[in-house]
Design brief:
4 helices; 0% strand
Length: 96
């Protein structure tokens, strides 16, 4: 129910654009994940990129494309923020 409410609020704020507008080039989730992981400035952030995109991919089927785009941009912004340096949890080991 919460996702449905978030989608409705998003669509009220940003109605669908006219259908004649040009689309952005397509890419895959794995391409997005690897680019975000490569841009990350630490192994921890690279691992976070993979995990966050996995979660977004699962939820994307319930959201309009522009809402997914916004979440990708927000995630990218957080991962590329040099001031954001997550602590390595002793139980967490990022993949190489």
């Amino acid at each position: 129910m919460r996702v449905r409410d978030e989608v409705a609020e998003f669509e009220r704020r940003w109605p669908a654009p006219p259908s004649h507008e040009a689309n952005v080039p397509t890419f895959t989730w794995s391409q997005l994940e690897r680019q975000l992981a490569d841009l990350a400035d630490s192994p921890m952030k690279a691992a976070m990129a993979r995990d966050l995109m996995s979660g977004l991919r699962k939820m994307s089927q319930f959201k309009p494309p522009e809402m997914v785009l916004r979440e990708i941009l927000c995630t990218s912004w957080a991962l590329l923020d040099e001031g954001f340096q997550p602590e390595l949890d002793s139980d967490f080991r990022p993949e190489a």
